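Blinded run. Sample ID left blank on purpose so nobody reads anything into the name before looking at the predicted structure. Input follows.
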Amino acid sequence: MNAPDADARPAGHLDKAEVVLAARNVSKSFGAVHALKAVNFDVHRGQVTTLFGENGAGKSTLMKILSGIQLPSSGELILDGQPIEIASTVEARDLGISIIHQELSLAPNMNVRDNIFMGREIMSSAGVNFAEEERQTRALMRELEEEIDPLTTVEDLRLGQQQIVEIARALSVNSRILIMDEPTSALSASEVEVLFKVINDLKAKGVSIVYISHHLEEALTITDHAVVLRDGEMTAQGPRAEINLEWIVRNMVGENFDLGNPPVGYELGAPALELKGLTVPAASGAGNAVNKLDLTVKAGEIVCIYGLMGAGRTETMECVAGRLHASEGQILLHGRDIGHLSIAGRIAAGLVLVPEDRQRDGLVQSMTVGRNLSLASIRDFTRGVFTNRRDEAEIVDRSIREVMVKTDGPGAPIGSLSGGNQQKVVIGKMLATRPSVILLDEPSRGIDVGAKAEVFRILADHARDGMAVVYSTSEVGECLAIAHRIIVMHRGRIAAQFTDDATKEAIMAASGESLVA
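Blinded prediction complete.
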């Protein structure tokens, strides 16, 4: 079914459901950059309004305005029919508006309980009532069907569990309007199902949800209304019955395209990376995360590793890159055993990793775009304690062009970039070392469909030049994008391999996952 274009619907159109929060002609400028341009946006009572758009489209800026993090340059917010000004997140919370941020805002050195109640501790006559906070935390974890001990330190949790804690913190406030910015970016399929059940329960209680996601098909299963932003302007809106995937993509990027296809027209080379009997102990100390894994990747080959949370994908990647130690097995790079090398030694040998968590492991937040891009190639432009700034500038400029980073320049703060462009910086940083093998753990996490296509194009181009590419993903659609071969992992082992015969159903079945209608 083809939905009507945006220009067929007035920007201020209201559907029948009651509007509890509205943005009217909201604009936001940062110097000469116009992040939002006279946007009208409605939040409906007891319904999910999904906001779609590429990185840099203005989604996060609009959400920051609705949640009190930023003030608009012009325009107004209307809550329950009355104009309001939200000057802080505390004021927003007092009005019943909470936000789950795309980039986690947890204190890693604190436990789960203290993160959830930080800044709004439950007090008694004797001080903070830790017992009650712990009881409520356990109740939230049961609601989210996640067995997380409230006293566990956040930094000891895997990324998906940290995302659950972030969600639990927002739920604990009992908000009437809940903004979810990429809440499922690090969740497994089963965890997404639980979250969607929680969302439906909240809707039944009259809670309004604003939902942002780059998982387009996933978002369609939960949305009631959709709004699309492009370059700071609303390009389309409509109720669920009038929209589909093609409508979303067309209004986001202005054209139809897919994520690409496996590059063709060249012969694969000799084995570039070989894993022989690789075994990686589980972080818990009980059993192995990876069990006697055998895998060979040839020069010029693109291999996708798919699996649910706990399948061993990340542990495999991090062990090969030197971040985790193997208890058994060999890692061969062009026939050379590199198992004894440090991370830096493996990078120098030609093997690099783009980690899953770009904020924590891929970027230095205090550095500029240029310094982040050049960090892994520092040996190429330093001699002793001296730095050749011209050589560094050449590396940075080449990387910005190669991975098409949208930035004001090398001196821009890394935090000024959208999520997709930050991911390109991490990829560009590793490509600048001129590797022969690149590993990417969830390379499209938290980036939009346009940025995904650009990332996959970059990888395909390098594969044509002979680079071996191994990427992991929890999105089946990405398996079918550019991979020559798909490896499905389950409980630390290879459960299946696919080439030309891959289907979404077969991949998910091999992983132990069931299709959700």
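Unblinding after everyone has recorded impressions. The chain has four domains: 6-96+175-253, 108-174, 257-350+436-517, 363-434.
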